[in-house]
Amino acid sequence: xxxxxxxxxxCLQRGKEFSSFGSIDTQQFSYDGQRLRLTYxxxxxxxxxxxxxxxxxxxxxxxxxAGLGTPVLHKRxxxxxxxxxKTSLVCQNTQxxxxxxxxxxxxxxxxxxxxxxxxxxxxxxxxxxxxxxxxGVQRTNxxxxxxxxxAVCMENQAGSHISLGTIQTMEVKSINSTDLLxxxxxxxxxxxxxxxxxTEMTPTSRIFMRCGNRLGKPKMSNGPDNECYxxxxxESSLACADKAEQVILEENGILRDARFGFIxxxxxxxxxxxxxx
Length: 277
Known about the structure:
Order of helices and strands: EEEEEEEEEEEEEEEEEEEEEEE
CATH topology of the largest domain: Cation-dependent Mannose-6-phosphate Receptor, Chain A
Helix content: under 10%
Largest sheet: 5 strands, mixed
Number of strands: 23
């Protein structure tokens, strides 16, 4: 009955039956540098769920035209409901961040992402590579031919500038306790022209970030291989993880996360009820 949802953050209604998908007392906000997530735990019983209970997640997605927006059910699992919520409330703080939360560890690469300069590496054949991991290669006298969407841009011996992967395709994952892998796909097919293949290939740049003692700079390791991977190694103190922390929701509806300089006002959607199918 309805009493099952009196303290619920998410409530499922089926006819006259109501089920809690998480208690309001368990709400947790987290931010990975790109997305704001709200989770609820300790709902009604569900044997295969977290601690045998139903739970739910809401991902807030920036949409400058959505206003407050409303949640939409994205996926429904046996004991977990996942919602996407397009809203303009999160747009002001999700632009041009270069920080990530991976496996409950925090990484801040903002110092490696610049609006004024790019990072440079040169291989044994004197081919130059320009890197700007979150903002894209910036236009300078030496990179004037690079696409602004390129995270990695190669200047070959003929002086042509070729994208080796775009910022829009960026993926970050942990390899082990000291290394991260940054991947950029969908570069310019000209970078794969020397590889024998029955289909057109596009390059992928892989930057192996290793925990080091200094800010460091990228080094070209090898590439392209038979799959058109270009591999770089970057030893940097910024690849050493900080422990991740939860975002704090203050009483006035302000979310704060000092790691990202994150301040967000969500009081306009608190203490309201929203429904979705």
